[in-house]
Amino acid sequence: MEKQVWRYMPLFTCLIGIFTACKKAEVPQQPPDTDPIQEKKIDSKYLLRIHQLGFDTTGARNYDSLFIVEGDIPMAKSFLDTVKLSSSDKNGRHAYTNTLLNMNNIRIFLSETFWGNSTYYQGILRAVQEWNGVTNSSLNFHTISHADAGYNWEIINATLPGGILALNDYPGLPDINGVPGYNILVDMDYINSLNLTYRQISWIIAHEIGHMVGLRHSDWDLRGEGTGVEGANYFPNIPVEDYSSLMRAIFDINNDGSVLFSSYDRTAISTLYPLHFCNLQTYIDLPNSGPSGTISGSIYPSYRGSVDLVEWEITNNSGFSYTYSDADPEAVIPILAPGTYTFRHRIIISKGCTSTWNVRTITVL
Ligand SMILES: [Zn+2]
């Protein structure tokens, strides 16, 4: 762990200067209302608006259609729903970077640090499934735990500056310090100290994936983040602020992570990466060689999402043949005698896409 932290120490000093720091655990824009006499809980979007208007939200009271703030100032909900908070170029709308991904199958490598931790693994898989579940998008995400087949991104455990849960790279910007591919840095120690659930971790990972494909914070302009080197372009088809966006900059610790994408998040993704072609590839998440115990047993498609059909074929020159074809993503590879085998794998997913056959030569020692 210490070695890993040391290894990546230069990365995030670099990242801080160039990239966006994400999701502080505190909610500085939303001071918690701790007044015990408040009549009803105030929705966080109204607390944020009141705060953005320059009023103290401590002790704000909720009377259905009316809030009372700072003791005696009435504010109608209808006013907060419609008030223009700032000039027209600061409207809390989703935005995207100048450069987008130039691929649609993204392999994410997970080291044992993550796949060996059920809370994180569940969280990461749920985030990937959420992304793969955007039906009008051509993006396909694959998690792999063996680096042999190559990968595009890696999720890395790192110690990050105070209050930061995770960091990202944006597409098109230079690779960092020779580390292959682009990376999501996650501060596991900090996340663990907050006792976040796998659902909350999936919120964090799904948010970081959003940046990795070019989504800015959906409230970037209200926060004064500026366009930065990555750029910020509004979506012509998203005309309003999106309070429930996964891409809000601050992770609210009270958010249980049960809901990830908002409908506008899905609009943003399908606008940038529309499903006009499939180009679905899949990957065989096994090492190039290993003992039978490593190669055999349960195996899943690297693509995690709704799968209509999973196919495996394993053959060798001695006439061995194993086939699996089923909607169940879990296939069980039998014990294989030492030798060299040809693995073929293909999936069909609910978007109507059929992957190409992936072929690997794997040696059982
Ligand atoms: Zn962020």
TrEMBL record:
Gene Ontology MF: a single term: metallopeptidase activity
Cross-referenced InterPro entries: MetalloPept_cat_dom_sf, Peptidase_M10/M27/M57
PROSITE patterns attached to this UniProt entry: PROKAR_LIPOPROTEIN
Pfam short name (any one): Peptidase_M57
Domain of life: Bacteria
Protein's recorded name: Dual-action HEIGH metallo-peptidase
Organism: Chitinophaga japonensis
